[in-house]
Structures are given as C-alpha cells and as structure tokens.
Amino acid sequence: MEQLEAYIAKWKLSYAEPLADTFLGRLYKVQSPDGPAVLKILTDIGVEGGRPASSVLEWYDGHGAVRLFRHDARAMLLEYAGGNDLTSLARNGRDDEATQLIAGVIKQLHGRNQDNPPDDLTPLLQRFQPLFQSSMLVRAATHVLHGDLHHENVIYHPVRGWLAIDPKGLIGDRAHDAANGLCNPGSLPEIVRNRERLLRQAGNMASALDIDRQRLLSYVFVEACVVASWCLEVGADPSHWRLWRRLVSADS
Q: Whole-number mean pLDDT of the chain?
C-alpha cells in the first residue's frame, strides 16, 4: 500500500481500483491527468522486464499499442483501454475474425519506421538460446517486436480501436509476433487445440502479413518449445505447449 500511495502522490492519481495481482506486478485502474489509466507497480521479478517493456511502448508511441504516460524503474502508468479482449470473439464463433484483428494490430506495430530502435530490447537469439541456434533466426530481418501478442493482450479501446498491451520488448523476425496468436486463446482449448484450426489460422495470418506460412509454423514450434521449457522450470503445466509441438510436427 505504501508504494501505491507514493505513486498516487507522485503522479497525481486518484480513484485507485485493483485490477489484477500477478507475479510481475500489481495493476490498478486510476484517474490520471492524462485520463483513465492503468498503474502497474512492478514486483522484483517484474522490474527486469519492465525496462524493455517501457522502452518499446515509448517507441510505439500509441501506434497499435496503449500509450505509456509515465514510468520509472518500479512502475508504469498506461493508457486504459477498458474493453474486451479478443478471447470473446473466439468464444463466440468469430475465431477467424480475431486472427485478422491480431494481424491488423501487428501491421500497425511493425509499420513503425525500424530505424533507431531501442537499444535495450532482447534479441530473439537470446530468448531462444536455451534451445538452439538456428540459421532461420540469424538471417531474419530485424523488427521491434511486442513479444507476447495473443488474444488477451489485444484490448478494445472505444475510441482508438484494438490495441496491444503488455509487451515484452524483443527484437528480431516479425514472424515471431504472428506465431504467438496461433496458439491462443489458451483458455479455449476446445477451439484452438486442433490441427485443422492451426493450419487455417496460420494461412490467414500468413496471407494478411505476407509471411511464408511454413516459416510462421516454424516459429510456432520454437515458441512452444521455449514456453514448455519455461513451464518446467517454474513448476507449471507444459501440456498445452507440448501439444503445439506435436501439432506443428504433424504438418512438417
């Protein structure tokens, strides 16, 4: 509570309403001088990822992502979108539309001029280092990446439309951002966990973004391996991600 009160005073906030409490940070809906906002107070674990996240949000400057109003080493004040995420579309029979909307957000994010990107983003080679080094990754064009773009991280803003939230701040092949959405929403396994759906949505995403479908599926496989490995490290269930490795392998 002391941290919350300190940021309320420091950034002239009011009406703090708890939104979520995760291992990366505590989130509050607040009223700020810039309008409705989300105050994210980082945990000790979240601080490490907070620096590239704030850097990439500053770099996006509201193009396809929520705006970053203020930040320091321990907290971020973010634009409040307030609407539903894309999971609701997938749940209500609009899975293809959700994929197209993710592709539209990716186009906005990747449409930023790639000159002079932030210098504190994590290269994909570093993210994938625990698994292997691949010539596929080495020869990839360099783009500033969201790093965790899936249905729950695309929120509807009543004025600005669909916006990305909660970036991780990577740099590398843009196919990585496109691949993440294909494995989600994980909360709807009855919809997403089948090979036919994977191939259909991979085709939709590849066509919308002009990315080779097989390259996109390769990134789905790599991401599934990385996240499954992370789940084992922290004691989480890796079965969802192991399934994706099998689904992609079946297509090779």
A: 89
